[in-house]
Amino acid sequence: MSSKVPKYDEAYVWVWLPGETAPVVAGRLYAHDGLVSFNYGRSFRELGSAIPLYLPELPLKAGELPLLPGLTMPGCIRDAAPDAWGRRVILNRKFGVKGDEIARLDISELTFLLESGSDRI
Questions:
Q1: What is the Cα gyration radius of the chain?
Q2: What is the 3-state secondary structure of the chain?
Q3: Integer Cα distance of 113 and 118 in angstroms
Q4: Is 81:112 a contact under the CB 8 Å cutoff?
Q5: pLDDT at 89
Q6: Which of 32, 35, 56, 60 could potentially form a cystine with 52 if both were Cys, beta carbons 3.0 to 4.6 Å apart?
Q7: Which of 97, 72, 68 is nearest to 5 (CA)?
Q8: pLDDT in tens, 11-23
């Protein structure tokens, strides 16, 4: 059953900037070594209207942004992921996983983010 659940290793983060009517790509999340890191795209950083997604955690600067102590991914991004009930719904409706099967799966945060829809925040 678990072979039906995809494993994602990257995702692009889109943002609607103040006063704009279309979103732009802000940066990329990528999984590595049990962590999910974020870096802003150069084209986003160079926009005159670019703003940080969440200044205390993801300041607008180049390169991989360090995670806050104790986190495995940026908390402001993790907050957009579904809660425990939403995760069970995704596993059941999208992949047919039920009951005890759920506990045996190792599902990444990126999988839950991407399978939950594109308008989480």
A1: 16
A2: CHHHCCCCCEEEEEECCCCCCCCEEEEEEEEECCEEEEEECHHHHCCCCCCCCECCCECCCCCCECCCCCCCCCHHHHCCCCCHHHHHHHHHHHHCCCCHHHHHCCCCHHHHHHHCCCCCC
A3: 8
A4: yes
A5: 84
A6: 60
A7: 97
A8: 999 999 999 999 9
